[in-house]
Amino acid sequence: MVDTNIVLDLLAKRDDFFVDAQRIFTLSDKNMVKLYVSSLTFANTYYILSQQLKIDGVHKILRKFKILVDVLLMDDKVIDLSLESDFIDFEDAIQYNTAIENRIDIIITRNLKDFKTAKIPVFTAKEYLKLKGF
């Protein structure tokens, strides 16, 4: 499961973070890993990119990006679990509970501190790449 910040690192070409994000998504493009994002990630990414780019450009970017990931749904159970969770950041609670409900075993994020209570491993992009030997 890839958190929104990693997706934005790639799509917005954020300095200092772009290269590791690009390496992770290249692994997906080469069918070496299977990556997932939540539907919330698509909505948040669209919103943030639309503040910087024209709407048709954002659509084009997201269509291309969609090929690299599977999108997981947010449903009533995920929202209920997130509302009752001990996560401080609600968006992170949704990401985490989406992963748990879909039996995803790893979360990749830049905000490790926001996932302190996670019951599954959480890595930065750099840590994940090192762990997998890439």
What attributes does this structure have?
134 residues, mainly alpha, Rossmann fold, two-stranded parallel sheet, two-stranded parallel ribbon, 7 helices, 9% strand
The ordered H/E elements are HHEHHEHHEEH
- The CATH superfamily is identified as 5'-nuclease
Distance between the termini: 18 Å
Radius of gyration (Å): 14 Å
Please provide the count of β strands: 4
The order of strands across the largest sheet is 1-2
Shape: globular
Sheet bearing the most strands, described? 2 strands, parallel
Q: What oligomeric state best describes the polypeptide chains here?
A: single chain
Fold and architecture overview:
With 134 residues, the chain is mainly α. The protein has one domain (4-131): Rossmann fold, CATH 3.40.50. The protein contains seven helices and four strands. The strands form two sheets. A two-stranded parallel ribbon has the order 1-2. A two-stranded parallel sheet has the order 3-4. The longest helix has 12 residues, at 18-29. The protein is globular and about 35 Å long. It starts with a helix and ends with a helix.
Write a compact overview of the structure shown:
By secondary structure, the protein is mostly helical. It contains seven helices and four strands, in the order ααβααβααββα.
Give the helices and strands, then pairings.
Blueprint: H1 4-11, H2 18-29, E1 35-38, H3 39-50, H4 55-66, E2 69-72, H5 76-84, H6 90-101, E3 107-108, E4 122-123, H7 125-131
Helix pairs in contact: 1-2, 1-3, 3-4, 5-6
